[in-house]
Amino acid sequence: MNQMTQAERSVQTETRDVKFECRDVQVWYGEKHALKDVGVDILDKTVTAFIGPSGCGKSTFLRCLNRMNDTIAAARVGGQMLLDGEDIYDPRVDPVQLRARVGMVFQKPNPFPKSIYDNVAYGPRIHGLAPTRADLDAVVEKSLRRAALWDDVKDRLGETGTSLSGGQQQRLCIARAIATSPEVLLMDEPCSALDPIATAQIEELIDELRDRYSVVIVTHSMQQAARVSQKTAFFHLGHLVEYASTDDIFTSPKDPRTESYITGRIG
Amino acid sequence: MNQMTQAERSVQTETRDVKFECRDVQVWYGEKHALKDVGVDILDKTVTAFIGPSGCGKSTFLRCLNRMNDTIAAARVGGQMLLDGEDIYDPRVDPVQLRARVGMVFQKPNPFPKSIYDNVAYGPRIHGLAPTRADLDAVVEKSLRRAALWDDVKDRLGETGTSLSGGQQQRLCIARAIATSPEVLLMDEPCSALDPIATAQIEELIDELRDRYSVVIVTHSMQQAARVSQKTAFFHLGHLVEYASTDDIFTSPKDPRTESYITGRIG
Amino acid sequence: RNQIQVAGSSTVLPYATIAAEAFADNTDFAAPVVEGGGSGAGIKQFCAGVGPRTIDIANSSRPMTQAELADCHANGVARVIEVRFGYDGIVFASGINGPDFALSTQDIHAALAAEVVVDGRRTPNPARRWADVNPTLPAQEIAVFVPGTKHGTREVFEEKVMAAGCDASGTRAELAALDGDKAARAACTALRSDGRAVDIDGDYTETLARVDSNPNGMGVFGLSFYENNTTRLKVAPIDGVVPTVASVASGEYPVSRPLFFYVKADHFGLVPGLKEFAEFFVVDAIAGPGGPLADYGLVPDPQLAAVQAAVAAEHVMGAD
Amino acid sequence: MSPLTTLIIILGLAGLGYLLGRRRAVALVAGDTRQLHSRPAYHGWLVALLAALPPLGLLVLGGLAGPLIPGATHGAGALLAPAAALLALAGLGVGLARISPGFRARNAVERVIGLLLILCSLIAIATTLGIVLSLVFESASFFRLYPWHEFLFGTEWTPRFGGGSKLGMLPLLWGTLYISFIALLVAVPIGLFAAIYMSEYASRRVRAVAKPAIEVLAGIPTIVYGLFALVTVGPLIRDWLAQPLGLGDSGASVATAGLVMGIMLIPFVSSLSDDIINAVPQSLRDGALGLGSTPSETIRHVVIPAALPGIVGAVLLAASRAIGETMIVVLGAGAMARISGNPFEAMTTITVKIVGQLTGDNDFNSPETLVAFALGLTLFVMTLGLNVLALYIVRKYREQYE
Amino acid sequence: MSDPAQTAPRPRRSLLQTDAGTRRRNAAERRFRTYGAAAILTAMAALAVLMFTVFRDGASAFVQARATIPVVIAADVVDPQGNRDPAEMAKILTMSYSRLLDQALTREIARSGIQVGGLTQRDITGFLSAQARADLRRAVLADPSLVGQEIEWRMMTSSRVDAMLKGRITREMAARDARTSVAQYDLAMALRDRGVVRAGFNWRFITAPDGSDSRPEAAGLGVAILGSFYMMLIVLVLALPIGVAASIWLEEFAPKNRLTDVIEVNISNLAAVPSIVFGILGLAAFINFVGLPRSAPIVGGLVLTLMTLPTIIISTRAALKAVPPSIRDAALGVGASRMQTVFHHVLPLAMPGVLTGTILGLAQALGETAPLMLIGMVAFVTTYPSAPPQGLFDPASALPVQIYNWTQRADPAFFERASGAIIVLLAFLLAMNLIAIWLRRKFERRW
Ligand SMILES: Nc1ncnc2c1ncn2[C@@H]1O[C@H](COP(=O)(O)OP(=O)(O)OP(=O)(O)O)[C@@H](O)[C@H]1O
Ligand SMILES: Nc1ncnc2c1ncn2[C@@H]1O[C@H](COP(=O)(O)OP(=O)(O)OP(=O)(O)O)[C@@H](O)[C@H]1O
Ligand SMILES: [Mg+2]
Ligand SMILES: [Mg+2]
Ligand SMILES: O=P([O-])([O-])[O-]
Prior knowledge:
By secondary structure, chain A is α/β, with parallel strands linked by helices. Chain A has helices spanning 6-13, 58-65, 95-101, 116-127, 133-146, 150-153, 166-178, 196-209, 222-228, 246-251, 256-263, and strands at residues 18-29, 32-43, 47-51, 75-83, 86-87, 102-105, 184-188, 214-218, 231-236, 239-245. Chain A has a domain at 19-110 and 183-262: 3-Layer(aba) Sandwich (Rossmann fold). In chain A, the strands form two sheets. In chain A, strands 6-7-8-3-9-10 form a six-stranded mixed β-sheet, sandwiched between helices. A four-stranded antiparallel β-sheet of chain A has the order 2-1-4-5, covered by helices on one side. In chain A, helix 8 links the parallel strand 7 and strand 8 (214-218). Chain A is globular and about 50 Å long. In chain A, 55% of the residues are buried. The radius of gyration of chain D is 28 Å and the shape is globular. Chains in contact: A-B, A-D, A-E, B-D, B-E, C-D, C-E, D-E. Strand 2 of chain C pairs antiparallel with strand 4 of chain E, so a sheet runs across the interface. Chain D: Residues 173-390 form the ABC transmembrane type-1 domain.
């Protein structure tokens, strides 16, 4: 997976459609202006990485993309966000349908207090993706395998998801999200609790998903961003400072803030 | 902080006392044997890193060291764990006193649903470490500063800790833990949600703490382990595979599993 | 609806249930449904109108007032038959282990009145012990449990004991001389509120329990209730007369009252068995001497025959 | 048709509608259910709901309009059942006709269910409205007969037969507050501590036994408590507390009623609080324990504040029951309407007098009876204030976790 | 500025020795824990005392003394016409049948050679239950061929005799009791010794309808149990879904604004409305407006439903509030609708609270008397209601009403029955709640 060169990828980038078109996005938490004038085009069949210091608004923006911010009473969202040209904040839009198309892995693993199997099977069940029990079993196994969790849990699918280790929970949430095959997958630091090998497997998964879907990933690891993404957006203090192809961001950042963030990295 | 060479550190290691002496530690979660025959000596004034694939038992072992496993009904612990020569599972031992001496930062940030200030002030308050309000203010500020969170939150100390971003919550939990000045600090992936700069600051903090305390850190980043720790323990499938000075582990691992884990690393 | 519905006085309730049960035992009609609730509430429901949603019979421990009858008529309840089926005695009884009491209405008034006249001035009742009222009585703290104002019995108590005692002792005249007639009447029946006369909002079983738990306690009961609980209560003669079915029937015992039920003749034919029940209630075998009602403690009406005739003839109120 | 058969017919049609709707949805896409906007079950549900809800609504409305007594023979009632059945059939047809792959059946079902949820909430509102209405009119008649200021500010409560009553509610209000206060003084600490013990300290076994056992306390009829107060607790308090302290010798007292009522209210506080405390995430406890706090500190500083809204709800429920209780007060506290600070004296409450005056032997249109409605209304307004306060407290101190 | 974070590490102390501060905190901990245990124990002790009182007073209600004696169905008494015409025979009232029983008892006394001084006719008549003659009459009317025969007849003794056998009335008390006598006491003891009178389990107490004030021994709970059962059925079927639905709307869907605040406060406030006011409402709405019949379980059930709703709503809302938002996020994140999120995840997690509310609400509803007073259910009903749905509209009583009634009756035997009825009510409550308690245990989990 990591054999593909950066060059190869960036070439493909140009040919892709815009999946999400965001203009002037603003988010307030009560009085606090958490996101300011964010404008970004997220491409289809592309992995987009959001980087930036902790607290800069990456998760907030991610949650805007599938309207998860609706659940936070204090949050207000402004601006325009178009998914395939349709405004997702249009009152006629059914957020449920939106979220079925735009899946999400949350920053803090939040498995349901149900069995591991049910955690993964939940999405396919409600969306009717697996009509028979055998289909469902297959979907669950496939998702857990792709999330690199199958070997850890195959003997204990009936145990509750909350009894897993931190990294296992994180992978369970990934498996849960991909089980519904969303068009866009938003992943908020999906590898933060994973060891290098599991991380590699998830990155491989992301790369694989890119063939058909659009993936947005928040990460604090520059290396990871460089490895998996074709586009990178750098956030700082609520502003989208720079958005460009990953190569450009890492080799020739335009904004001094981007540069200092990238060079301030360690190891 | 990172200027100190690995050699310098390993020399100092030898002179230190054993803080935790663990022999034959076993943990079962119900039927599942999660930790098997773990024996390890954790030194004083040393940073010990626990590494290993996700689900191998790092957190489990960490939770044994301050008896946090007591709170899991299904968990049973066997073997011997001596803190300064005293068995911490002795029935006469008060886990409260133990935990005051052995602080912990959990894998999933768990701030209290209280103000940021109260989150940090909680430990000093219950242990009576800050008799006056001014003392308390000072402790809170100092802890937040050391956890690299002060600048983010200094204007909003009264806001609830749960309204912080993921990385901010993690730093809040670190600040909360160091505010009580424990002798041993157990940190379960303290930097997983942090950007490189914040990570560097936390690593600096760890290095600073080492002067007086013993620090155990779980991490998935080999680089981090190599940077901050003097001793490293590698866990695999519930076994402690290898425990040696960090240099030795990373340069000449004895066990083939250790080697393959370390070389399998990416980036 | 094929069941007769009865509601009203809780004093009449036991008699009505006995009659209803016997009625069901002896006829093919369904057993009437009998509710308590108090005379006033019963009459109110009774007068609410005609039709299957309204009750057929109202029990009452006092005669229906003109106002209530007018209300009935206004609501279309034109034909109301009044049936007086017997008398009930009201007795004073104390704990079985306490001293004997022989009371008079004057004593009771003097012990329980809110205010008495001392030296020509109205003063709050100073009596603390029965002996303060009448030296022949035991030197026991006054503690009398009186039915609360929600009970019809209370009205009888005020009229036949308090007011009578007030008259007999001459207090009424003294009060009238001070404040006029109207105020005197009110003052005569006002009970002291310093805890020596205790209102009981519950029923006789509560009064009994209170007498049981208070060695000084004395309570006001219905005769039948007392007769069922002679192992725990000791009755006090009033003016020298011991309350019994006989002494109440003869009129010797002063504190008694008639008991009634009111039948909605408009429902005859509408509710099966209504007239039959009304008649059955007052036959000699039920309401007469030796019948189950008298066994239970009812003082049979000496003019029961006339009552039977009136029911049979459907003699409605206001017709004469 | 009897209501039962009508009901069975309607429900049968709804069941049929479910099956048909589902089948049709599947058939429309030739078995490839992914082409459907909504899962086949939702199509089925929608048809079922369309078949069941309108006729049921009709039946209820028809029942409100005319007596719903079975076997009622008047014309409208007899027509109602067939009409409902027809309506069900029509709903079934319409539902089936609307099915198409792109049809948003789930949204439609959810909208219907949402409406049903709102309807259910409205029942509570309707109840309130009904209560206020049934109190207001009679209260108005009362205030025509009796001056309102004497009622609201009068300190004497002496209803009499045939007029001349003094109907000041202050003594009753005082009694209500006093007795409820004592009851909560007993129930809240015991209940809260019991809840804490059950959720935080007790083993699963102890908890499995203790919780339902304590709940039995809520199921014992109040008359038993009343008799217990009257026969056992009253004399005990009189002989061991009141008389030695020289505070009176009344067997019935505020303390007696409050104490016994407090016992009855324990499960209201304990069971509900236990559930809520149990729902506080373990990670919060771990956080506090990890800092070296004792379990009790964890509970006091972290768990209870996080569970506060639920606990306030539980206490409010207990307070409500205390205010609404009759029998225990009648038997335990006596029927004395008076204002006194001495807890060993007999007093009474608004609720007791509402019951007493309403079921009493007074003329129904006399102020002595009508005062019950005014008392009810006053109580209603008073508790409303209490609840607003509670809401405010919860809003202010709520600690929302995660 | 003193800075604890800056000071040297606290001196190393043994874990086995607790320092002063910890000792103090541990003492506080122990105190706190003790308070908890004490609270549980207090509640349990109160329960034990109440249970003890109830069982002490009520257990004997399940036992009843009965006499078995040969009775001659004398034709001159029951069929003076002599033509065995049931219509004619029906004119003979039950009172006449007591002559047959009196004769039978007198014969039995003579036959077994019992000598009791001062035995009066009243003692004889009062020995057997008034129910006996009614039963005998019914048997004879049902089978006129019995006339003229001698039959072995088993019947209840009167409440006083029953109490003597149970030891509630002693010989001394009998002397003071206006309704019995020493002679009757001696007779009862003699007949018991000869096995004529014997105590046995009293099924009638559970199955029979209420008895009038003069027949406490015949009074049973049959109608009340049925009535309570019907009402609870209605309450469960209505209050639980409506309460849960209302809570879900208010907690999960309702916009948070003034109006919903008003609704919220209103519902809490409903809990504080005295139950009798619900009776007023029920009378006005269901009986006077809708026109449902008086004394019917349907009305009782509806009134109790309204009364129970706030309890269920308050506890359900509290439980819904306690479910962490992260669980909602998780479900919404995989594309579940809000409705699905609530019904698949939030509600199951809130289930313990819902069930607690149901348990408490039903307990309250099952034990409530006051509102039933106004809708005519506090009544003497001796006819069983028929099977539902018609039975919901028939007059019926209810368990708390029966208890309330019995505690008000004069004959002390009713007090025993009332306590017995409380035992039945508690058993009923337990049976009703067992499922809820079991379910709640299943749903209880930590996360
Ligand atoms: N409460 C629990 N109940 C049952 N099994 C558990 C529980 N907690 C952890 N386990 C299991 O024990 C094993 C070790 O878990 P642990 O949390 O120690 O892993 P870890 O090394 O910390 O992994 P990670 O890096 O993913 O956090 C895992 O297989 C996990 O599934
Ligand atoms: N629910 C909330 N209420 C109020 N403020 C919030 C809330 N959630 C986030 N914030 C604030 O908004 C800002 C952006 O938060 P966000 O979670 O988007 O950060 P982030 O970029 O994801 O950081 P991290 O890398 O630490 O997760 C932060 O300052 C945070 O404190
Ligand atoms: Mg984030
Ligand atoms: Mg872990
Ligand atoms: O119920 P009363 O007989 O007192 O009207």
